[in-house]
Amino acid sequence: MAVPRETAMGGSGDIKAFALAGECIEAVPVRWATDRRMLYGDGLFETIRCRFGQPFMLDAHIARLIRGARALGFRSIPSRDALRTVCETAAGSVGLLEHACLRLSLGRGAGSVGPVPDPSAQPELTAVAYGYSPPSGEKYARGYSACFAPFPRNERSPVASIKSCNFLENILARRYAVRRGFDEAILRNTAGRVAEASCANLVAVFGRLLLSPDPGTEGCLSGITVRMVASIAPRLGLRFRFGKIPERAIFECDEAFLTNSLIGVMPLTSLEGRSLGGGAPGRIAAAMRERFESRLQRLRAPGRMVGAG
């Protein structure tokens, strides 16, 4: 691949790329080594639950990916139909696994090794599917424990509400939590309010009000599962609102839970060693999880009828 002279190593001509595999040095495609997702996290990703070769809530994931690409100013964006075809092909590649995960990623392109993107670079799309082991029933019955991350989330960052490939802050937060014996880390923003968990949105329950940090102001991702929860709430006689959750308020909630596309709805029963909502999963989290699982169960194996087996 020809690389623009101003970005090439040494300032001239074509370049070659190499990788160390064990003790062997191997030549690798230059496009791999100059993919801006790898160099700078300059890309987007979606993590999609699959069942029997079928992606779950695929349209919502595709819509979020497209919104992110527009926000980042990508030169061109694959069509919805193209994105759907790639996702369905990848999901089908793992066969009829009941539990699988699809990782979809869209990068700005390859070829430019400097911080300023090459305006002629074409976005690159990749998708990979693999088996997934959901949390055990025992884990849902006990709920997650969490601690606060030791650093703040910058709610003013232009990528705070985008699912970008620059995910290192979240990885470090989760690593910090796991090393301390917790399941998750809760990030607070620079104002000291709750933003999100390292890999999930947070919902706190106050009476019949479900409150979740606002992606527009609090420094959290606009989650797909939490928006499903928001749509279900009125049917259960509940109110849902995106807003602000001060740190002290989370300890005053009646219950709390986390949401993402893989775990669905997971009760959050303790934070920094302090019980939330009595230290046991709440009834609203249970009701939301039941509805999440019910929708997921609609993805059935080919030829399997409702009620069969």
Annotated CATH architecture of the largest domain: Alpha-Beta Barrel
What is the total domain count? Answer: 2
- The count of strands amounts to 15
Strand composition percent = 25-35%
Task: Give the overall silhouette.
Answer: globular
Layout of secondary structure:
Elements: E1 17-21, E2 24-28, H1 30-33, H2 36-40, E3 43-51, E4 54-55, H3 58-71, H4 80-92, E5 100-107, E6 124-131, H5 137-142, E7 144-148, H6 168-179, E8 184-188, E9 194-197, E10 201-206, E11 209-213, H7 224-232, E12 239-243, H8 247-250, E13 255-260, E14 264-271, E15 274-275, H9 283-297
Helix pairs in contact: 3-4
Short summary:
By secondary structure, the chain is an alpha+beta fold. The protein has 2 domains: 25-131, Aminotransferase class 4, branched-chain amino acid transferase, N-terminal domain (D-amino Acid Aminotransferase, Chain A, domain 1, 2-Layer Sandwich), CATH 3.30.470; 137-296, D-amino Acid Aminotransferase, Chain A, domain 2 (Alpha-Beta Barrel), CATH 3.20.10.10.
